Amino acid sequence: MAVKKSQKKKIKQKYPVLRIYLRANFNNSIITATDLSGKVLAWSSAGKAGFKGTKKSTPFAAQKASEELLEKIKQDFETNSVHLVIRGAGMGRDSFLRAVQATGLQIESIKDDTGFPFGGVRPKPRRRV
Known about the structure:
Number of strands: 5
Shape: elongated
Number of helices: 2
Strand content: 25-35%
Oligomer: single chain
Helix content: 10-25%
């Protein structure tokens, strides 16, 4: 006799407030959605959205990746407000913000977490002749 395996039903949880991280490199844009404690719920990137090579670094690719993620967030987690954390100096920063505003989600805060050099590199040693 064959025993049927019952599939576990996925429990839909509601997260009214989420935190969305954008890592905008010069080569790709990676977007991650977490709850307020930091647990990753969903992610997307320009590569996952179907772009390859130099097209991944374009603002259009970042916009499509963010639209893909935001639709999933609205459907699966019933989110209505987000906190945004943006890191990096890539080209997808502005198009990501426009895509979030277009979906109708309420933006609670925007934090720019881009790193910057604060000591510089060690200077070249003086030449001895």
